[in-house]
Amino acid sequence: MKGFHLVRRTNVKLWQRILFYVIGILVSLVIGAILLSTLDIDPIKYYRQMMTIGLIENKYPEKAIEGLLKIFVPLLIVSLALSLSYRMKFWNVGGEGEFIVGAIIAAVIAFKCSSLPGPLVILLMSLAAFIASGLIGLAVAFLKVKFNTNETLVTLMINYIALYVITYIADTKKSWNFFLDKESARPKFAKFPDPAKMPGIKIGNVNLLYSVIIALALGVIIYFYLKSTKQGYEISVVGDSTDTARYAGMNVGRIVMRTVFLSAALVGMAGAFSASTAATISTSITNNVGWTGVIVAWLSKLSTPGIAVVSLLISVLQYGCQAASVSYGSVDHNFADLLQGVILFSVLVADFALNFRIVRRKEADNV
Amino acid sequence: MADKTELAIELKNISKSFGSVKANKNINLTLRKGEILALLGENGSGKTTLMNMLSGIYTPDSGSVFIDGQQVTISSPEDSVRLGIGMVHQHFKLVERFSAADNILIGAKNKGHFLLGKNRYKEIEDIADRFGFKIDAAKIVANMAVSEKQTLEILKVLYYGAKVIILDEPTAVLTVQEIKKLFDVLRKMKEEGHSIIIITHKLNEVMEISDRVAVLRKGEYIDTVETAKTNEKQLTELMVGRKIDLNIDHPRIEKTKPLLEIRNLSVNGDEGNLAVDKLSFYIRGGEVLGVAGIAGSGQKELCEAIAGLRKIKDGMIIHGGVNIAGLPPQKITEHGIAMSFIPEDRLGMGLAPSLSITDNVILKKYRKGKGPLVDRKTGRAEAQAIIKELDIVTPSTEIAVRKLSGGNVQKVLLGREIQSAPNVLITAYPVRGLDINSSYAIYDIINQQKLKGVGVMFVGEDLDVMMALCDKIMVICHGRLMGVVGTDKITKEEIGLMMTGVLNTVNAKEGKTAGIARDSALTAEEWEEGLEYAAERAYAEEDDASGERGRKAMTVARGRSTGSKRKEGADS
After folding, report:
1. Which chain A residues touch B545 with a CB distance below 8 Å?
2. Which of B83, B283, B385, B502 counts the most CB atoms within 10 A of its CB?
């Protein structure tokens, strides 16, 4: 491409950024609309049903809100947790595995400590999941700090280990396996006893689970943790330059291990919340939240308020597709994943367009 | 203006911008055949950008290039080589693990070398001979001295048939003697009909080597003058845009007792090599001690060791009567030792570039204050004070340091270090990459500290500056002390010889060893005992990887110093 080249833009304004992202999302919706049209579906009707997550013309609109929140809560917590690691350039892609481990540990407590009073069981489940997943994160961080292992590979492998552990539990009908339903002839996960179910408060017809309140509070806490605390300050310095952190007398290894522990622990806690909300576990309990969380963290550029907004949007997208699939049998929830991928690409393109301009080269007059 | 055919290169109205920054604005430049043209300008005036467009690394936004009177488009480094332009970059582009010959042949796609034969060494040496160079073609680049690498780079461009050779700050890494040699080579190439552009900001070199001087200022072309018809003063004015006093202040005050005494210090480098080798020196309050040496002679390791950032292998660092060797960095800061190290990339160490000025100011004391929260209010006030005191140009205290200009970045760093009211200030390359005005502002800051009675260690690159600013210069070569000399008693050439290890003045004076203070804080016996402990510790650590025993020995060595001495150090 002779005569053209890229020039970096500086001083991009906030409104420009928002404008470019909105254009990016609109473009992806148009691409989705084209795909829908090929299936003889009216995209406008479909999108309307998707965006309103089936609230309209629904006998039980409160169910739609509860369903949306069931997707939103784990996604919000996991994205927040992963962003902690990413701020330090520690590429934790083990969300799936950490989430499963949290869920399994929560299930152990649920089945074994059901004699305790309700709130205490939930608390124990969350705490155990928090610590168990946190220790996994700590181990990975330790390997990275001590032996400079590649954390992306290690966390990636942990995903598979955790997945196969839960698959093994799900498939093994043995007397020791307290996870499975004793009554059923085929292997099937048992329901949690009542004290292990996530309680909530009734607001109108909606049963607002405590996990929703905790997740939102967590968002606020992490925002202040990063912004105002000494530990948060350490995270931003280490993320910016480890040399400088060392120079300031920070123990970089300890800060990395502490933060990754927290990051993995919170993912594990989200796993416990999901298990408790569903009152059971399954091999598909993560609903891919470990991966979607990575996307959310990046789409929001690791900003905490951004994560809240983006995870809500992605939740609407996912739940909306589920809701719409009731009327459109030929389009299932996979369409949400497809649209999510296209949106990620469009936002990346928008980012590129924000940062660079294509310029044509001018020749000087020949004198 | 000369006849067109006499021009090797003609640039017309060349412009190039990076984002909103105009690096080059409508630049016109001519290079005659068989001349040495010096391209002069301060840092950031666009010299390297302009030359990178000739060598195909950047493409101009607008403007035209003529070579031998023909208009050409250079859109890649290959184009540039084909047109007979060769550039020797400031940072060498060599494969460290390859031999000299292989580094040259690596790009010889069209020369029919499918297999590398044994005869390639001979072949390259023959070519080198023809140009009048002596090189060992089989030598691995990693084992070469800086000047050898540079010779290899020059030979590489000649091998590809360059008629025009561009050298980007070739003298920055060389000693005085090596610079002489390089200039002889350049003169010889000129006689053979090559045209040479040399980028530099050292005026004495410009006067010595060039035929004409082209001056750039802030991305704009100012003028081209005949070297014979100009002088350093006029060139400076062209370069800076106004009259400027080139003298660096050198105030003198009563010196105090040694504040920082270093004895027998050995420190390992990153590759486990011995970077600092049994170094002994001291700094008094109210003096500036320059540290001179070829790049990579252990300066970085020395600074890091004093600041507590690098493990000390052996030796003692006595500050205020206490051995601080092996203490963690924040303890050393509390002792009143401040370090500002400007690495080559400027932002790598000491500053967090994406964080605000406030956040960078609190970097070393964010732990202070009770509770888990960071005290940004005090930090902001301090940032404002530094901005005011050092005239830092910035819209606010909350702007990311990365967005400031080089001079202001360095002021933030130095300002923070001074703010902690140190009694020993270690500053390495504080004017790296700064223009003349900013450099002088930094020299002023250093002099003010000296007048306050602070002991300053100034690790520098430019010998002229060090001769003017420092009271004494310590020369190191391969981490070893070559001597400590008063700047009024030595010439640049002698320092150059010391830098290369040819001249050693450590024991030149009878009855006095350089680097060892007569009025030391410790007695001779105390030193001996302490060093024995330190050596034992080093031995123990090699023996026992856990280092537990070593740490004990260190505590003993440290504990021996008395409280009264500590007080004395703090007072001075």
Report:
1. none
2. B283
Asked if pLDDT for residue B125 goes beyond 90, the answer is: no
Q: What is the mean pLDDT of chain B?
A: 82
Looking at chain A, which residue has its C-alpha nearest residue B365?
A: A248
For residue range A302-333, what is the model confidence (pLDDT) as tens digits? 999 999 999 999 999 889 888 888 888 788 77
C-alpha B194 chain-centroid distance: 30
Q: Which residues 6+ apart lie within 8 Å of A172 measured at CB?
A: A187
Q: Which ipTM did the prediction report?
A: 0.83
pLDDT exceeds 90 at position A282: yes
The pTM of the full predicted model, rounded to 2 decimals, is 0.76
C-beta neighbour count of B321 within 10 angstroms = 21
Q: Does residue B45 register a pLDDT over 90?
A: no
Name residue, tokens 């007569």. B518
Q: Closest Cα to residue B67, out of B80, B52, B51, B50?
A: B80
All structural domains of chain B, each given as residue ranges with its CATH number in brackets, are 4-240 (3.40.50.300), 258-336+422-571 (3.40.50.300)
Per-residue model confidence (pLDDT) at position A33:
93
Beta bridge partners of residue B555, listed in sequence order: none
pLDDT above 90 for B533: no
Chain A, chain B: beta-carbon pairs less than 8 Å apart? 99
* Nearest chain A residue to B13, by CA: A364
What is the distance of C-alpha A186 from the center of its chain? 32
pLDDT level of residue A272 (50, 70, 90 thresholds): very high
For residue B359, the one-letter residue type is D
Instruction: Test A249 with B373 for CB contact under 8 angstroms.
Output: no
**Is residue A1 over pLDDT 50?**
no
What are the boundaries of each domain within chain A?
70-306
| Chain A partners within 8 Å of B20 (Cβ) | 10-11
In DSSP notation, B256-269 reads -SEEEEEEEEEEE-
pLDDT at A366 over 50: no
